[in-house]
């Protein structure tokens, strides 16, 4: 689309610079201007569609914002627990269910 627009601009400038006499009587100039107008209308329609799509994307993004905020608070709360008490630094790996040794402490998933 950008290449077509540049080509259209170049063609218009070429026709205007080479036109002699009344430009309204130059059939080539009229055809170039008409095709440029069609191209400009197509670009405008695509821009309108892009604006609607962008609005939908932004609305959908806003729907995920509350869970993103909650998740980030949860992540940083858990990661900062080791600063409160060093026990928390080791508590999550020790309660992991991937260990072959059965754990006597309750796992976080059952609490």
What descriptive keywords fit this protein?
0% strand; single chain; rod-shaped; mainly alpha; 111 residues
Short description:
With 111 residues, the protein is mainly alpha-helical.
Outline the structure in words.
The chain is mainly α and 111 residues long. It is 75% helix and 0% strand. The chain starts with a helix and ends in a 17-residue tail after the last helix. The relative contact order is 0.06.
Computed Rg: 33 Å
Helix share, percent: over 70%
What does the average pLDDT come to? 79
- Class per helix and strand makeup: mainly alpha
Distance between the termini: 58 Å
| Shape estimate | rod-shaped
Number of strands: 0
Beta-strand content bin:
under 5%
Spans where pLDDT lies below 50 across 5 or more residues? none
Largest sheet: none
The number of helices is 3
N to C succession of SSEs: HHH
How are the elements arranged and paired?
Elements: H1 2-18, H2 27-84, H3 87-94
Helix pairs in contact: 1-2, 2-3
